[in-house]
Design brief:
Radius of gyration: 21 Å
Oligomer: single chain
Number of strands: 0
GO biological process, one term: protein targeting to vacuole
Largest sheet: none
Pfam families: TPR_Vps41
Number of helices: 11
Shape: elongated
Strand content: under 5%
InterPro entries: Vps41/Vps8 (IPR045111)
Helix content: over 70%
Order of helices and strands: HHHHHHHHHHH
């Protein structure tokens, strides 16, 4: 009865305390990992939290398959894109080619270049950075040109905000 209740409400338990719930599932429901993953398919954000806790804990990460690592990266791109690059640096239990398509579709330049490097395409990695820089530089140029023309019409504050946004993107 406890087992079925935990599995029935696993998505809610993960929201309450992600780490403790994940630990509970691994410690006492290790044979139910496939069932937990199936149940969490309907709750991708909770599935992401569960997978992330497992992957981040070296004693738990062995419970994840390569396919689940790939799923984790896809969910991370969706829910926590700023963490993808660091995750890819710290882990190797994923399909680089598959993940390359995922990070590219989400426009994650750093992660895209890193995966290209991991598969030996250093030229491609450099090209990704150059393309990103060119795009950001063009945006900045456009904002500067707009600001020059708008300054005369009194929209200086809005233009200054837009310029700050572009500079932040270049720095990021």
């Amino acid at each position: 009865k406890v087992r079925s209740s935990v599995l029935m409400f696993v998505d809610v338990l993960l929201v309450i305390d992600t780490h403790k719930c994940s630990r509970l599932l691994v410690d006492y429901f290790v044979d139910d990992h496939v069932e937990v993953m199936a149940h969490l398919q309907k709750h991708p954000e909770q599935q992401y939290m569960y997978l992330k806790v497992l992957a981040d804990d070296s004693s738990l990460s062995s419970h994840l398959t390569e396919k689940e690592h790939d799923l984790l990266i896809e969910l991370m791109c969706k829910y926590e894109p700023d963490a993808v690059y660091r995750f890819l640096l710290a882990h190797n239990d994923y399909h680089p080619q598959h993940c390359l398509k995922i990070v590219k579709s989400y426009g994650l330049c750093d992660a895209h270049a890193l995966l290209l490097e991991k598969i030996g395409d250093f030229e491609g990695a450099l090209e990704v950075f150059l393309d990103h820089f060119t795009t950001q530089f063009s945006s900045l140029r456009e904002v500067i040109m707009t600001s020059l023309s708008k300054e005369q019409s009194g929209e200086t504050e809005r233009v200054r905000d837009r310029m700050s946004e572009c500079v932040e993107k270049l720095e990021g």
